[in-house]
Amino acid sequence: MEKKKNIRMKKLLSITTITALVLGLAGCKKDSAFLDVNPTTFLTTDQVFSDPNLVLTVLADLYNRQEDISSLDGNSNDPGWRSFADFSESFPSENGSSYLVQRTGWGYGQWSIDWGTAYTYVREVNLFLERDSASTQLADADKKRFYAEGRFLRAMYYFELAKRYGGVPLITHSLTLTKDVSSIQYPRAKESDIYDFVISEAEAIKGDLPADPATKSRASRAAAVAMECRAALYAGSIAKYGATTAAVSLPGGEVGIDASKANDYYTKSLNAAKEIIAGTDGAYGLYNNGGDPSDNYANLFLDKASIETIYFEDFKTGGKTHGFTTNDQPYSFSDEGGDAGRLDPSLNLVNQYEKLDNTFAPLATVDGSNKPIYYTNEDDIFAGRDARLAGTVLLPNRQFKGKTVDIWAGYVLADGSIFTSDEAGHTKALPGTTVPVQVVGIDGPVNGLELRTQSGFYIRKYLDPTTGSGRRGQGSTVAFIRYRFAEILLNAAEASFELGHPDDAATYMNLVRARAGLTTPLVAGDITFDRVVHERRIELAFEGHILFDMKRWRLAHKRWDGAPTTMADVRSNLGVATQHSTQPWGLWPYKVYNPADPATNGKWIFKETLPALATGYNKFLFGNYYSQISDNAIAANPKLVRQPNQ
Amino acid sequence: MKISYKYFLGVLALASAVACKKDNYSAPSSMLTGHLLYNSDTIQVERNQVPFQIYQYGFGKVGPIGSTFAQDGSFSEVLFNGTYKIIIPNGQGPFMWKQTAAGNPDTVNVQLKGNQNVDLQVTPYYMVRNANITVSGGTASATCKLEKIITDANAKDVERVSLYVNKDQFASGGDNIAKMDLPAASITDMNNISLSVAVPAMTPAQNYVYARIGVKIAGLEDMIFSPLVKISF
Fold first, then answer.
1. I want to staple B208 with a disulfide (CB 3.0 to 4.6 A). Which of A198, A464, A599, B232 is the partner?
2. What's the CATH code of the domain at B149?
3. Would you tell me the crossing angle of helices A140-165 and A115-134 to the nearest 10 degrees?
4. What's the confidence (pLDDT) of residue A80?
């Protein structure tokens, strides 16, 4: 009995001990040791901000989501090519995009960035900056550079917002939602506040960014200063020319800048430009490798090591590529069957290229008595022009990828009638013959026939000569240049001109023009406002400048005035800033068939032609100067004031 | 497996019973119509260019119902019965719209109950008076008089007077087959303005055109017009 009890006691003791031991062992471990498991599918903020390579991936995402009005890859709504195809500078040769030339104006919401998307981006950059500065693991040098890059991206984004909306709420830290929603409802800042912010941010961060011309896809010192230079120029011109359109302003300054600030902004722009020109920010210069100036100009957009490029959006095989070449290559030697020819520069633009003696003249199609002029070679009509014409536009009878484009609209017979076909490259027997011959170019133009040129021209800028670049699967890796040295020179020229130094303006402008083969220098007396406007239109054609330039000079409602464009309009007022241009005209070459007259038979004549699809016209309203802030955004934040004239 | 059709029948009966019930608002049916008026004269504008906004409060969001006036200055909207406010945004139209002391467009309140006509009184900068347009010998000729209505500190100058001729009933800067612009500098007498333009050949041929005279006022983008006339010849 006694023994049994003992055994039982022992048993009890051992069970208790073991239980206690087990419990004790388990209890020794803290809850967190086994409850907190590191996730295997994502990295925590602390982990990311402890490794510079991981921080760079976060930054890469922010770089990738920058806003451009025109870009080579574009987005699903606006594929790359179409973002360049408006304002009558080109004709869209794709049936689904005919609306670009058939509408009679733009909606007030045009060119806006979705408000939610915009402030999501701003918030993410703000969070990035806060996390970067809170990080304890990063080396100081890395931390500083990342911080400066984040601020650069944020300033760039606010600049893009200001171009579209004027003053917007300036949020420079991440917001936290509390019960009181009104605490995160910010009113719009003044338009000048946003430009001041961009300028002061650039000044503040430039010292922390590398002054290295090889850094092109990430922020560099020169990129920050170039942004400052452009922003100050925009602000200066809005201040100066905004006075001419008093209706486009708001009493609170959310839209419009006081005219008295103009000179201050122009001075800032000029100083920023001088800093880059002097080489303080790195050894940049004009891309000039000799040879044919047209080829040189075209190559500047293809050569990624160009000393002219300050900041670009890069593309890479195996990473991100774009379909610009696929969409816009000449039809007759397209890498991809039916994909070609969408972006066709207009005669409105082509006529603007000067002759080599710095004078303007329309391409000569008729003589003084309205008789057609006969040319021996198809491209003779373009001889003696600014080399940037052939560098920007792929002209008839010129080459791309070693092949000649076949652009001609048909035969013109002895009686002046046209003998052609509605099918590109079609063969028919000419009158009086029996052997079928080709009667129209394989590359067009035929009215309404998409994917071939309908204006008589193809785009050359950005067109990638790499083998296979026109294939959909491969794509092109040509970079989209956001800031380049030539623009800095033109900024300097404009600021100098506005500050009353036309002699300096001529010096800066002549550098850009000499590279383009215009060797007769301009003198101070030649520099007018029209010249400034003209030079930017030509040098920076198809680079995403035209809309914002026309807006800041308050010229948009004059150039795109809603009246149809006549042939006389296309031929006259060349180089005049207010020349109206509302419909994209074309220049169609015809081959003469007149065996009875050997003097003209086989020669070429040209006819200015308005493509049949261009039934609309550009009409820019006062309400278009600043894009509409959506009613949803205003409903969510009643502190946002509406844009003027909307 | 034996399928029991009685259940299907039951479900069908239930579904049809539910679907019978109206579960939606009836469509709006009250017609709000009106004209832009100066005293008793209608203001003629360019189609689709002069907007107005209608607000209805009490439904959370505060966005406007936006639309534009027709060429003859008329508007029409089909709405639900209720209380509405109508404005014309600042800077729109060839006229002055009443403003509040803060410089915002003043509102016209409308209690909509059934069809209703609401004319909007505005003060134009100019009116085209006594417009007379004729076509003879392939030329359209017009005479008119400009009456300056606003003469105080808000007065604006004329930028140009234009004659627009079109083959359909829309005649304006964008819609025309022939036009003549007379810049302000060439106007010597506001009471006696004459314009003329050749009427081009039309395809298919027609023996009538529409025409009207427009006045562009400096600093405003919308033009004011004379009433449209159809001229047969």
1. B232
2. 2.60.40.2060
3. 160
4. 85
Token couple for A62? 């922010």
Record the tokens describing residue A430, joined without a space.
């000419």
Is position B14 within any domain? no
User: Residues of B with CB below 8 A from A251's CB?
Assistant: 103
Q: Are residues B171 and B91 in the same domain?
A: no
In the block, tokens 């451009």 appear at A68
CATH 1.25.40.390 residue ranges of chain A are: 45-68+81-85+113-177+186-314+484-554
In words, the CATH class of domain A45-68+81-85+113-177+186-314+484-554 is mainly alpha
Contact A631 B63 (CB under 8 A): yes
Q: How far apart are CA B216 and CA B208, in angstroms?
A: 26
Q: Provide the shortest C-alpha distance from residue A23 to chain B (in Å).
A: 58
| Cβ contact B91–A561 (<8 Å) | no
Domain end, chosen from B123, B139, B174, is at B123
Q: Of B74, B95, B123, which marks where a domain is finished?
A: B123
- State which residue of chain B sits closest to A646, comparing Cα positions: B89
d(CA A216, CA A307): 10
Amino acid at A568: A
CA distance A298 to A294: 6
Closest CA in chain A for residue B220:
A247
Q: What is the pLDDT of residues A246-275, one digit of tens each?
A: 889 999 999 999 999 999 999 999 999 999
**Cβ proximity of A296 and A303 under 8 Å:** no
For A247, the closest of B61, B63, B91 (CB atoms) is B91
pTM reported for the whole predicted model = 0.89
Give the Cα separation of A222 and A205 in Å (integer): 11
Model confidence over A394-450: pLDDT tens digits?
999 999 999 999 999 999 999 999 999 998 889 999 998 999 999 999 998 999 999
Long-range pairs of A50-55 with CB within 8 A, sequence gap ≥ 24 = A50/A135, A50/A137, A50/A138, A51/A137, A52/A138, A52/A139, A52/A142, A52/A146, A55/A132, A55/A138, A55/A142, A55/A146
Tell me the shortest Cα–Cα distance from A178 to chain B, in angstroms: 20
Neighbours of A318 (CB within 10 A): 6
List, in sequence order, every residue forming a beta bridge with B33; answer none if it has no partner: B76, B117
Residue B129 and residue B117 in one domain? no
Minimal C-alpha gap between A314 and chain B (Å): 41
Residues 6+ apart with CB under 8 A from A265: A195, A232, A233, A235, A236, A239, A257
Q: Is B201 inside any structural domain?
A: yes
Domain count, chain B: 2
Residues B107 and B162 both lie in one domain: no
B195 is in which domain, residue-wise?
125-232
The answer to whether residue B3 sits within a structural domain is: no
